[in-house]
Design brief:
- Three copies of one chain form a homotrimer.
- The first copy, chain A, is of the alpha/beta class and about 450 residues long.
- The first copy, chain A, has three domains: about 260 residues, Aminopeptidase, CATH 3.40.630.10; about 90 residues, Domain of unknown function DUF2172 (Glucose Oxidase, domain 1); about 80 residues, no CATH class.
- Chain A is about 30% helix and about 20% strand.
- In chain A, the strands form five sheets. Chain A has an eight-stranded mixed beta sheet with strand order 1-10-12-11-13-16-14-15, sandwiched between helices. In chain A, strands 5-4-9-6 form a four-stranded antiparallel beta sheet. A two-stranded antiparallel ribbon of chain A has the order 2-3.
- In chain A, strand 4 and strand 5 form a beta hairpin.
- At the B-C interface, strand 3 and helix 8 of B face helix 12 of C.
């Protein structure tokens, strides 16, 4: 395979040059108010907006279908929901914030005592001014989310409860598109769009994907093909794997689930189940050298769609680059995860990190040195390879020379550049020009 | 193989319900005064008492027989021994404490000067009020053990020395019984009974074995067969291995040498030579989660019968659960290792820990998950498997849910539950009900 | 193979008994003034002096020959070089210190302005009273080395510049001899002799080799054959490998590059590329137990001749025992690396350490125990093996007994003594008598 090793120019592209914060914010503002769930009109209309940025095709699967071990549920839509207190005041108004109602609540139109109402109310005792996000996809029930303060102020009396929802058979939709590369080996990028009116743990994912799509489109074609999927969380990845699992097992070289990318400075990387996949090597190679702290989390079989992708029968090389990780910031799955929590600058920075990781994957190959017996006499190279003046006094050469010598010494055809970079602790992407020069001058060749 | 997975009920049994401290103390008081050695009447009469608790059969091997590289020595018996000082006072009276005389002392009845006597006297310079325990099984000699104070007060004059002992060909006896299980795979439990009038480093071992026998008998039949052996230390295990070594190599799944179980709160685990045997995994899985500190000691080829069991040609999976380890408490092999050193409560607690380890071994198997492609939809389980309310905010699920998800994710048929528990750091026995429910509901099956 | 295991007597030899400091100093004083370079008369006359101590044969290769990826350069000789300042004073006089002139400077005899002269001047801004050592073997140029003070004091005017050098085709010479042992497996000892008028980073290497040669000669014949080579650095090892590489790959059991052995107390060990070669095991086994600190440096593909020896196509087991490592002491490659920097006592101590490492390699073999089933009954040994009185109270036996039991327990024929010593943390050479006794008494045999 002959590859176009022009990473050095491609990697110059910056996220801020393809998207402005304002453009991101405009899309955020259009998507935020929609009452999405895993199936239903909200999901579909949100996907339609996102399709302005990423040219998805739609894939529909009917309610009741079995996908892997799961059953596609009915659709849920909600038009209004509220409680009328004994004093006539409206409480938990769906139209004020649609996560006031428990997702997949059954329709209700009745009156009841406070005692009867209470089992249907959800609060956050440790965050008195906020209320939780609650869903019940498979067990039929209804409920409302209140702040603890609202809950504590409830008085005895008759409460009117209205939920104007419908639950009926329909279909699960997801969006998928592939940016074709020079090979059919794929990088899988997956995000989800089923959470209503939350900012970091929802819209940060699809918006980062939109930035990344545009960056990869602008700099393409690449060595890899890039598969973008937007799904409802969990049931969506089960559906995708049911339909494309064997293809993905064969073709996916690396991949990531995009979420929690707009809040916090520190980086978090949750490893793939394999622990040493190309995704893990490339992500850690880049994140380790970024300025903010990095937490590396070993794989655990819970969380988001990595549960499905990394289940033992597929074991795909899927990791997650995040800022604060899901479940580890207090606003997660609460009304406090609103627009004020996220920064569009952070989102751009996160997309840039993902782009750097993609470029690292593009740059990676298994080199084989031309000269294995003895060192090459590099002063005879047609292209100058030493990026510094030889200094006879110091064996602490510049980083570039160190990296060059390490690569040449380990280029026996059994270690990839990412593996060499991990062993010898250097930022692979930073040395893309050097690597291109080593290839051009013939000192290393691709190992077929 | 179909197994009866009823560990959850079996593990409820407590050591205190099968033995009282008083009952243990009564047996201790009967065994303590006897002058035991590796062969002879003392060993045999002690074994006869222990057979009231564990139904041993006797295995006899004559003096002079070669067992592996060793020679079975002659028998030694001692009826009396003492020194008469120049002033007529009796010193080092065997009848006061029989470890006053060096084990395997030849018979003596003579008078001598202090200078002649001194080479036969043994003291503990660092513990002035106590005297050592000394034995010389193969090199013929005689001697007495004195406190340093007694030694320092000796005056010139004529000393009368009397040792009424016999050394003559006889036979080595050990006791052995097997508690039959559903399979002929064995757990080997070995202890020794050759030390006279010492408490922790001797009687704690056989008494803990008696408790454990009764607990296993009460809760049986088990998956494994349990082999109980009481031997003279070292020469006994050499004899056992000479006669049963090939059988043990084929059948022993795990095993332990029981000693030093009555003194101290901390736990010590000395690993088997293999370092990753089932004994090691099960013992560490239980001891790591106990309330007292745990010292883990890598295998070294010295100590007790593990020297023989773990010699390279057998390399049996034999470890040792101890409290303070032999050689690491100052009273070890001295007159200070008497009844006041040990606690029968500690002994019961030690036996309980061993029982928990046995139950952990019984619970262990290599699971294979029914659903490998994607996660199972556990809300459809016929048996409720989630032991907690789903909490949408936190990915730090309860320990039970975490353990369930880890097991399901790693149940590919190549890791045992003990290996999964080690990798994912959970107390296996604590989750026996969960594991039974996972089997009953069909989500995991035994890997044949 | 039957080996003569008489290490215990051989290892008694001390470096000080074969060489005095004065004898070393005399050779130093004869070698130091010579203007050596990688080829030329200086190298050859220095090698002629060194041949008084080590009976080298000469191997010559013409300029222009390709050796591996390298080209043998022309010879350089320099008879005189200086600058005459505008005031008539002589500066940078080659005859005062021959590293005043850049190695391989082309001949010059001309006058020029200060501005024209300056690009040819080299200084050490951070060591104002010293000047650097500079060479340019392949790029034709000329130059002088000045102290920063000299440089700063230069005034405008006309400078006369004279370099009386010749660069012309000739031949590269290296010296090589083999001290024959009982087998043709080899220990490779390599040093270089191409640096003029520097002390630690040059003459310490060949002088240590001379000591080591005499020690090995005196105590021989040995199990291994010892190959001694003195070469010009880098191009010399490339030439040697070009001519003898396949032989060395087949025969070299362990080996070292000798340099930087006269300055500093601490030890530095740079590992071979393999990281677990016999060289690494033996060197670390000895250096770890020496009184001075030890720095262990993982292999990096730069430095001295290990670049060639450890290139992937040869990957020889070559490490370096040093005191302060090249590049890590400030005087390295400067005029400050003169006789005052080194200590002949340190040099003797360094040679002794190398000798100890050789004896450790000689002692090493893969033992197989006679008794594998159970422990041996060592009290029946024809040779007393316990080097201490049995102490029944303590399992912390003396080190000798501990080492004996560990060896017997691990002597299954798959681990060498060096590997056992590494695993169980003991100084192998310290226990040579014990090992000889274990062999004599038959408890361990050589594994063929």
């Amino acid at each position: 395979m002959r590859m176009n090793l022009d990473i050095s120019s491609k990697k110059q592209l910056k996220a801020k040059s393809v998207f402005t914060s304002q453009e991101l914010e405009d899309y955020f503002d259009r998507l935020y108010p929609i009452c999405r769930s895993i199936l239903g009109n909200g999901f579909r209309s949100s996907l339609e907006i996102l399709r302005e940025l990423i040219p998805f095709e739609y894939y529909d699967t009917p309610s009741g279908a079995q996908v892997l071990d799961w059953i596609v549920p009915d659709e849920w839509d909600c038009r209004d929901a509220f409680i009328i207190k004994p004093d006539g005041e409206k409480l938990a108004d769906f139209k004020e914030r649609n996560i006031r109602v428990v997702q997949y609540s059954t329709p209700v139109n009745t009156s009841m005592t406070l005692k009867e109402l209470k089992p249907h109310l959800h609060t956050l005792p440790d965050m008195a001014d906020h209320f939780p996000y609650v869903a019940s996809y498979y067990k039929r029930q209804w409920g409302f989310c209140l702040t603890q303060k609202e809950y504590d102020a409830l008085e005895e009396g008759t409460y009117k409860v209205v939920i104007k929802s419908t639950i009926k058979p329909g279909f699960l939709r997801y969006g998928q598109t592939v940016l074709k590369g020079k090979t059919d080996n794929e990088i899988l990028l997956s995000t989800y769009l089923c959470h209503p009116q939350m900012a970091n743990h929802e819209l940060a994912g699809p918006l980062a994907m939109a930035i990344l799509y545009r960056m990869l489109k602008t700099t393409g074609p690449h060595k890899f093909s890039y598969r973008f999927v937007v799904i409802p969380e969990n049931i969506g990845s089960a559906t995708l794997l049911h339909q494309y699992g064997d293809h993905l097992v064969e073709k996916v070289h690396a991949g990531f689930v995009l979420n929690c990318l707009g809040h916090g400075k520190k980086w978090t990387y949750k490893m793939s189940r394999r622990g040493n996949s190309k995704s893990d090597l490339a992500a850690l190679n880049q994140l380790r050298f970024k300025q903010h702290d990095l937490d590396v989390i070993p794989f655990f079989p819970d969380g988001s769609d990595e549960r499905q992708y990394c289940s033992p029968g597929f074991n795909l090389p899927i990791g997650l680059v995040m800022r604060y990780m899901y479940g580890q910031f207090p606003e997660y799955h609460t009304s406090a995860d609103d627009k004020s929590l996220i920064s569009f600058e952070t989102l751009l920075e996160s997309a840039q990190a993902y782009f750097d990781i993609m470029m690292t994957l593009e740059l990676d190959f298994t080199p084989k040195a031309k000269i294995l017996r003895g060192t090459p006499m590099l002063s005879r190279s047609p292209i100058p390879l030493y990026r510094d003046t030889m200094n006879f006094r110091s064996h602490a050469k510049t980083e570039s020379t160190r990296v060059m010598l390490e690569i040449l010494n380990l280029a026996e055809g059994n270690l990839s550049l990412l593996e060499i970079a991990q062993l010898k602790n250097f930022d692979l992407l930073l040395h893309s020009e050097l690597i291109e020069d080593l290839v051009k001058s013939g000192y290393i060749v691709y190992q077929s």
